[in-house]
Amino acid sequence: MILLTLCLSGGLMAQDEAKSYKLENYGVVPNTGINNTPLLIAALQKIKAEADGQPVVILFKKGRYDFHPDGAVKREYYISNHDQDNPKTVGIPLEDFEQMTLDGQGADLIFHGRMLPIAMIANKQVKIKDLSIDFEKPQIAQVKIIENDSINGTIIFETAPWVTYKIQDSTFYNSGEGWEMRPTSGIAFEGDTKRIVYNSGDLQVGTKGVSEIAPGRIKAHHWKNPQLIPGTVIAMRGGYRPAPGIFVHKGENISFENVKVHYAEGMGLLAQLTENIDMDGFSVCLRGQKDPRYFTTQADATHFSGCKGRLVSKNGLYEGMMDDAINIHGTYLKMIKRLDDRTVLASYMHRQSFGFDWGYTGDSVQFIKSKTMELWTEQNSIQSITPMRDHDDTPIKEFKIRFVKALGNDINPDRVDVGIENLTWTPSVVFTGNTVRNNRARGALFSTPKPTLVAYNLFDHTSGCAILLCGDSNGWYETGSCRDIIIRNNKFVNALTSMYQFTSAVISIYPEIPDLANQIQYFHSGIRIENNEFETFDTPILYAKSVDGITFKRNRIKTNQQYPAFHRNKRRVLFERVVNAEVVDNKMDGKKVNLLK
């Protein structure tokens, strides 16, 4: 396997060759408390016009900059894996730039209300470095348990100092600039460690039937949960995810260096339909050990949908987010109708994934039987693809696709559910030197057939599985199979402290296959898991389903008693429909062990 080792400057201009523009010369100065949104937008427009495509470096001065919705631009964006409401309120629109570096020099960008902080649209050779993104009032309400009367089912909690709220009709609402919401679920953190409370998962929170007993102190009269001991901190949240911290769309050679996202109501970074993304020191994290917050983003830290070329993520810190550190996938279209032997109608299926391009003329595609997740052997390519909609402003959900070659007679939605995968828009991946800790759900998800390296990472108290290889043409419609992935020299510390979807072991290879009993082929292949260290309080280390070719060797397992074992999977290594497996030379507590017994 050939792995891509690339420096972050590859494809980008040298900074000393570019013309520099200081934002302070355009009235964008730090620590004033004024609304910088219209000032920065105007400055970017002037700089872009003057640069006329020549290399530029745009420089912030170190300090705090406030951005409010007033003066922001409104844009209609359909962002993968987010709620598809429009328009978006964009604080910093970076559109159609080429050969540009946005250098924060330590700038702290603070957003207010409900905004999409940075939108990077159709840029080429653009880099963002040395800045952070945060919100003055996150939509997640942080509270601390003060008293818990589990016999009578009442809890007294205290809101964090920055939380503003009201109680109306005995219901708790938290609010900010231009928004108000009632939290419906929560994640519980240990007060002293900021780890997610063992075996807690997603909580129901007591925001109905409440009363205020003192400013900032609320009594929930119908909230019974004995796990929530005094001192536990709850991140109370809703399910809404309107926008990420950074949105990258149709870019080419995009890079991030030492960029931190401290909060976003969606994901930290969402990139789609972009070629070549490099991240060094990109983090979704707290503001150090003394940060009074326990949470970061409402959803994934980073998420990549339908990207291609190289995807490099190294030296990042991902903590406290409400979902995975990284998720890489494409999107299956469901074949709706076969018009002739070369032409079909196909549709997006998930409510959070539609409205954006799926493929282009010349792209390579393959077809999959959704119920058994088996591929047809013949691949094809797109001759033409046309969105099917009544008006140009209607979001794209359905396409008419004509293929270069005739389809086999059995590739027919009248006979079997058919998914279509775009193979061109799949990336090679390098995920190295990162720390993932204290987050909800899973650690890292990889779904690409291209070479993937996952090495020298620390997965520390991820509450679900640390690594997931999935693939689903039935629910999430996230492609596809892994064919060449190396997972080596990583350290896993007490992962899998709660149960979430697909979390069958610390490393879970879990494609969604509704009819596994009738599957003949295998979904994943070419998986190597070597020289890793697992520290665990529970049993399951590796689960794999529908794999042809997997090695698990020279790994070290150290057991501990930090928590009671609870997982329903009682096997160290559990295989379902796996062939050509090699599980050898592994040790547990310093002794060689046969993990298949």
Describe the structure in your own words:
The protein is built from one helix and 51 strands. Mean pLDDT is 96; it is low at 1-12. It starts with 18 loop residues before the first strand and ends in a 5-residue tail after the last strand. With 597 residues, the protein is mostly beta strands.
SSE layout and pairing:
Blueprint: E1 19-22, H1 37-51, E2 56-59, E3 63-67, E4 73-75, E5 88-95, E6 98-111, E7 116-121, E8 124-135, E9 141-149, E10 154-159, E11 164-168, E12 171-176, E13 179-181, E14 185-189, E15 203-204, E16 210-214, E17 217-220, E18 233-237, E19 246-249, E20 252-261, E21 269-272, E22 275-280, E23 283-284, E24 302-305, E25 308-314, E26 317-319, E27 326-331, E28 333-340, E29 343-347, E30 364-369, E31 374-375, E32 380-387, E33 398-403, E34 418-422, E35 427-432, E36 435-437, E37 444-446, E38 452-455, E39 458-460, E40 467-469, E41 478-479, E42 485-488, E43 491-493, E44 507-509, E45 524-530, E46 533-536, E47 542-553, E48 556-559, E49 573-584, E50 587-588, E51 591-592
Parallel strand pairs: 1-2, 2-6, 3-6, 5-7, 6-8, 7-19, 8-20, 19-21, 20-22, 20-23, 21-24, 22-25, 24-27, 25-35, 26-36, 27-37, 35-38, 36-39, 37-40, 38-42, 39-43, 40-44, 42-45, 43-46, 44-47, 45-47, 46-48, 47-49, 48-50
Antiparallel strand pairs: 4-5, 9-10, 9-18, 10-17, 11-12, 12-13, 14-15, 14-18, 16-17, 27-41, 28-29, 28-34, 29-33, 30-31, 30-32, 30-34, 32-33, 50-51
